[in-house]
Amino acid sequence: xxxxxxxxxxxxxxxxxxVARRVADHLEITYVDTGAMYRSIAWKLLREKVNAxxxxxxTQLAESMTxxxxxxxxxxxxxxxxxxxxxxxxxxxxxxxxxxxxxxxxLVRKQQxxxxxxxxxxxxxxxxTHVLPHADVKIFLTASxxxxxxxxxKELLDxxxxxxxxxxxxxxxxxxxxxxxxxxxxxxxxxxxxxIDTTNQSISEAVEVILQLCRNKL
Length: 218
Ligand code: C5P
Prior knowledge:
Layout: E1 5-9, H1 16-27, E2 30-33, H2 34-47, H3 55-64, E3 67-70, E4 73-76, E5 79-81, H4 88-97, H5 101-117, E6 120-124, H6 127-131, E7 137-142, H7 145-158, H8 165-181, E8 194-197, H9 203-217
Parallel strand pairs: 1-6, 1-7, 2-6, 7-8
Antiparallel strand pairs: 3-4, 4-5
The protein binds cytidine-5'-monophosphate (C5P).
């Protein structure tokens, strides 16, 4: 297969990671979860008690970190991270550090290096616009805020974690607002991206649509 790049962007909770992982599995190429990279920085800041308001220190930390892809999560500086980067505290801080231009520059460079070495399905907020502007297939995946909060609620309940639908909705709205209004690389649909709204569509249907678009380009 030729070197092939798929970019999937969209707001929080739209189902990007599930869709991207399944597309990557079908195409037998690597899945890259860029959100996990921003989350890992937040996790490390909390662990090393770095002042998150000190942009220079946060940027330096981001530049020094090494990321390895791992099917079960992400390997950061040799440590495999899974559930510890999904806590509400890490989630909120990830959204804050993602506004920092230096942090984004450092991560974009690392993401581009990964994509140079192999074919990937990469998901995030700025993949089609900044990280892989020449991707073969670009998707902007979205769903209504109610549907995204409801899915997140169900996901937590299925894991045995109690949750409140209204506060989940508020949290998603806050993160979307942060992502859409930041100065550097805000969340937006690339001009050549295809919009897929999964409010009334199943995840499997979205995967099928994307696979068909990929097959047309392969
Ligand atoms: O996708 P996920 O929710 O795991 O991402 C965590 C946070 O990282 C998001 O709220 C967003 O602010 C940030 N992010 C980003 N750009 C990306 C991926 C994630 O700004 N490419």
